[in-house]
């Protein structure tokens, strides 16, 4: 749609609520472009609506309080693409001695799936990861069943957890909606449950976190940063964020995005 400037905050917030009721999710960057204001202005609007209990802040925007807390997979996949690619490349050496890896349903993990070295056995509940891996003849794939969740394009629930219970994994590669001193968080309880189950059967856990996740919030705690063997984060994380990670995690790998200083 063409950009329409919404200079009055009440009118702008009403429009944001209308969009949320229509689709369940609003992207800060998209709303800013279409309403003719800055992304910071939209973030302030969403922050005010969240303070009033009318919306839930999630990575990249907001969702309805009584709706899905996770924005659609396709939208999340297109965000921070450069950072996700850099993180995926930096994570590869952490899989060098692994034979069996579990990959969760995060968009950064899906980026890693396209770069996996040959010879691995991949265990996953993510449809994009399954698609990427079954397109190759040099990987073994164990696909987990369960209840399909369209927002994450993955399977989850009791059947997924039961499938993981009988498996053994060298490395579980996990993503997150948010991370901070209190640990790693997800926006969806079933997604959080699957991540915990993957971590429980793995010898090592590797977390892939683009810098935006270190400033985000989500309701479901998955595990502590100290429970991870390594965290891979892009170089746009602040010195304070990196210090926080290094204080809590055994190993922190900073991925070079190639961005100008």
Describe the structure in your own words.
The chain has 261 residues and is an alpha/beta fold. The protein has 10 helices and 15 strands. The protein has helices spanning 9-23, 28-35, 39-51, 73-78, 81-91, 107-113, 127-134, 158-165, 189-200, 239-248, and strands at residues 25-27, 55-58, 61-64, 100-103, 121-124, 140-143, 147-149, 154-156, 169-174, 178-180, 183-186, 202-209, 220-223, 230-234, 252-255. The longest helix is centred in the first third of the chain and has 15 residues, at 9-23. The model has no long low-confidence stretch (mean pLDDT 87).
Oligomer: single chain
Report low-confidence residues grouped into runs of 5 or more: none
N-to-C SSE string, H for helix and E for strand:
HEHHEEHHEHEHEEEHEEEHEEEHE
> The biggest beta sheet, please?
7 strands, parallel
Structural class: alpha/beta
Average pLDDT number: 87
Number of helices: 10
The strand count comes to 15
Estimated radius of gyration? 19 Å
Could you give a short description of this structure?
With 261 residues, the protein is an alpha/beta fold. The protein is 38% helix and 24% strand. The protein has helices at 9-23, 28-35, 39-51, 73-78, 81-91, 107-113, 127-134, 158-165, 189-200, 239-248, and strands at 25-27, 55-58, 61-64, 100-103, 121-124, 140-143, 147-149, 154-156, 169-174, 178-180, 183-186, 202-209, 220-223, 230-234, 252-255.
